[in-house]
């Protein structure tokens, strides 16, 4: 696979970025020539610091990055983030009752380790706010990261200034041209155009249409295509659309290194591309995820609407842990409810492999695709 | 642009298929080396026969095709299609009242030419049924077409047998792998994978994910990518994803030859890719179209749900004509209501050009894209 300017800029063998919440995937991908990017959101500062230390030690001289979630709008933003106690007061009782009733209906047991509850609630509340993001960024800046990305909004200037002062590039995910232009104005170094097909927080515009328009709008800022990449054909397509690389996520959830819940892995392996939806049921913002009884319940118009960020994550953090715990024990209700963020490419993700092998497979398939496409000068009949 | 097996099969210069309701676009595209495909649905048998005669005379020795709409489910299908009178009885009064109230609210005037009403109602009722499709196919078979396509379902065997007996290839649009497999079993010669981003009746899965899976599922049947094509970059992407060509639609609505309503053309030129939606408001089935006050009204959960095919088309045929008539006079309400089917690529369609020029532009951009991508063997640094 030919090295391009993105590779040179970040010191990569391949312009393949791997978004993941698993430090082990970051380590494998970065050591194999791609760019591992650790999603810090959902981690406590202590957990994140420990993960960064491990990655730094395991990836000497290799490029890796960090992804934060700092939306342009969230409850408490006027104050840069409210305390958990203050946020808890914004969660209506009706919503708590609905979640409890849902778990009861699916016979999901109580948490065995009560500490988990407090821990996850803290994470849910603290990471999606300016102060929460600042705390995580302060940790990230202690390590030799090459890239800091905001998955949902525009970083305040302090983040970019500090990153640039340390030689760290700043990136952002966008789902519309107008958002890309805002990021360009804000001075980001790389833009990730994320299509409708992508897992996680994503917009409504598919990559065939989104990528070329973002490329044209932000030139000469390089663009990565996010969403839909399951094999090398989609990388070739991304390049054809004008991207300089790809931002991948779902594909790593099926790797051996990934922390994906085993029941979720099994569901992913069996799912088709028709088995995902964009739903507010897991974070409060539209995020593509596997359909399950959980998303069915929240999409039902008879039930309460999801809450805005970060309230929804706080509301359901206990429930998610209880479902994960019961699904591990193969309990029926929890197995029906459990789901996770994943793109429409889930239909192409059928087996578990080591992350380095996945990366090699992608580059090999890319080469094969390019070989089949051929060069127009040599293979044209006209 | 290199000729491939699709070109050889159909005698084309370029593997670019142009779906259109305008005979003039078919003529221009087919004469310029692409494949014009006339959408017959919505035409009376007399109108369709006259269009086919004109195309045949204007395109000697050139390839062109016909597209019908024969869904797998529609009201009256047990009987192969009901009479208009019988179908009219299935339209609830509440729906008629809602449409009348909507037009009143937007101050849309009565039809000036009462004949138009009867004519369009007949079209709406008759074309979406086995007997209606059979009547149109009987006309199509009189002309030297190269391709007969079903845009929505699986053709009954009689259609394929007759087509094949005359050396006509049969194609079908699909939005899911399982539909592609059904079409393969039914013996189609070419499959058009239509992504979420496409205009008109389309499914939920984006092309980056849909196309490679359909290609793998139906091999060696050739696959075209439908949806998202606005310039040559998307054609290169389609080829990278494994398609052997592209099926285009929206792009021709902005050509000089197209019959597109002038107010719709203006709206298209100004629209971004965020200005479309999949809605049942225009045919009763999910179809991507421009957002307007019309789609807003039907998407509002307080209002009646759209009716199934072909009832919805019959219900609104009068309204559509009245809106078109008033929009031509620049009346405010009708201008707000008017819309048309179009893909998310509408954000890239900004100017009117002759169809032959559009085709040449696509192929030139495709060549440029392929040139930039380069061949892996010569430009790889590794």
3D architecture notes:
2 copies of one chain form a homodimer. By secondary structure, chain A is of the alpha/beta class. Chain A has a domain at 5-74 and 128-257 and 348-373: TIM Barrel. In chain A, 47% of the residues lie in helices and 13% in strands. Chain A has 18 helices and 11 strands. The first copy, chain A, has helices at residues 5-10, 23-31, 45-58, 84-88, 93-105, 114-127, 130-140, 157-165, 177-186, 207-218, 232-240, 250-253, 262-270, 293-299, 311-328, 332-337, 355-373, 376-379; strands spanning 16-20, 35-39, 64-68, 147-150, 169-174, 190-194, 200-201, 223-226, 245-248, 276-279, 287-290. Chain A has an 8-stranded parallel β-barrel with strand order 1-2-3-4-5-6-8-9, surrounded by 6 helices. A 3-stranded antiparallel sheet of chain A has the order 7-11-10, covered by helices on one side. In chain A, strand 10 and strand 11 form a beta hairpin. The longest helix of chain A is centred in the C-terminal third of the chain and has 19 residues, at 355-373. Mean pLDDT of chain A is 94; it is low at 375-382. At the A-B interface, helix 10, helix 11, helix 17 and helix 18 of A face helix 10, helix 11, helix 17 and helix 18 of B.
